[in-house]
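Think of the structure tokens as a kind of shorthand, similar to the way a musician reads notation: each symbol stands for something richer, in this case the local conformation of the backbone. In the example below we present two proteins back to back. Begin with the first one, reading the sequence and then the tokens, and try to describe in your own words what changes along the chain.
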Amino acid sequence: MDNITHTLSGIILSRAGLNRLSPHATWLLVAAVNAPDMDVFTAFAGPAASITEHRGALHSLVAMPLLALLVTVVFGLVARKNFRWGGAYLVSLIGVASNPIFDLANAYGVRILWPISNRWIHADFLPIVDPWIWAILLVGLVAPWLSRLVSAEMGAKAGSGRGAAIFALCLLGGYSFGRYLLHERAVAILDSHIYQGEVPLRVGAMPALANPFRWTGLVEGKEFFERYPEMNLLEEFNPSAGVVYYKPAPGPEIAAARRIALFRAFLEFAQWPLWSVTPLTGPEGGATVELTDLRFGAPGHTGFEVSARVDASGRVVETSPRF
């Protein structure tokens, strides 16, 4: 998920009762829920490192207790007096763990089992940025402030905001479960049809940004991928309305691209990889090779794509990441 969601969830968790474990709970949680995303700085090491390290080691089960300890020690050194180390560590651990748990629910995924397994795990039922989740968390955040205004007018005692925070967390759980059920429905619909005259090898559904009933349907056959960018669960599904992308035959251009570190890293990340080869005209010849992850868009219209220019002798002379 995005860092706005992580930060708001940390504040809500504090108000829901974790602030009873430590007087520094709110700031501890804000730091802890964002701590695993420090791996974003690996982008300075280049695009290949950005793919191989992002949502990897720092999002794993192994890293959780260590990151929580780091956050706790930093806050303990700053606070010094009256610092409850045990309560602060537990709060930090919950905050750190919430980050990859959220990330598991979206299409990008996370390598939570590193170093035992480098496999990307993703449930695909929540978008990476979800305005409905923002709204739910903001309601839990703002409700106590509105309650204080009303209480001040009536002369009553203002609440702590704990009830509103617990309500927001329950609402978030219900919304997420609803998204999960809609995802399973989308997958079941896709899996119940024939495509290009054959049973699909696999199907998938990626969530839209704001509409829980809209999904991007993906189908893989032996020689093709089919993509449904406007799949609406409130309408009848038309299996002939997808965009078909045929898999190119293996060739020297693709073989040359596979030897490049950027392409190898992207292949580990991409769950729906589509290769395309476009011959170049002119005296030099060669071809442009593109590798697209269909989860995030169509070829040429996505933020998750890498390309290479291969000359006539089969040598990669230029690479270009777009993610």
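Once you have a description of the first chain, move to the second and do the same.
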Amino acid sequence: MIRQLGVTHGSLAYGVAPAAPHSIFVLSMTGGVGVAPGERTARFGRNRLEVDVCVGEDDQKISRRHGELAYNRGYWWLTNTGRLPIRLPGARLLFAGEEPIPLAEGYTPLFLSGSARREHLLEVYVTGADGDRPRARHQDITQPPRAWRLSAEEKLVLIVLGQRYLLHEAQPQPLTWRQTADQLAELRPAEGWTAKRVEHMVVAIRTRLSKAGVAGLTRDEVGEPVGNALNDNLIRELMLSTALVPPDLAVLDDDE
């Protein structure tokens, strides 16, 4: 049975009412639906007459049938049937023609890019095996991020290399080997910093983390042309794991 969600329905980020196990709820600012697994495909897009959930109805950049959600093999799978990509958490883009993506239990926001930098939010919520939201864990111990051990020397090199990221610059890029070595030579003139020494150290760090399971740190994974992709992925992983944080920039001031 399809459950209709009215335009005044609250955000799915707060959870959903109990429903059949592995049900899916889909909501836009104009309303939405709740669908039990196996009942039907939930379609969304601009044309209210052709879809189950209307999104971006006044924006011609949104396709009339922009995407759909179908239940198969224990998961709800997201497919893009529109012209423009659908953005998922983590900046993942799903394009038309690509393989469907399975959605995890709980809340997932989807974003459809429209005209004049507009973004249309489509909220999705998948219930668990018991048909309810994941249980609250108010008193559980917080799981720490994966810790990457860096020597003091390695950390200094990475702070210099990735300082634009730590400064929150728009579209940051790592410094070059030469730029990094030159700044290190100014900070620590007695240590004999060269571009080649910086490169060897950073490559060793990438290799170590790659062997530990971090993706995107080898040429085979990224493909040619590599550009700054390997160091970009390295710095972002270190920031996500809090091995590098903005206050680390203070070491550059301390050494001046």
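Compare your description with these statements about the second chain. The first helix runs from residue 152 to 161.
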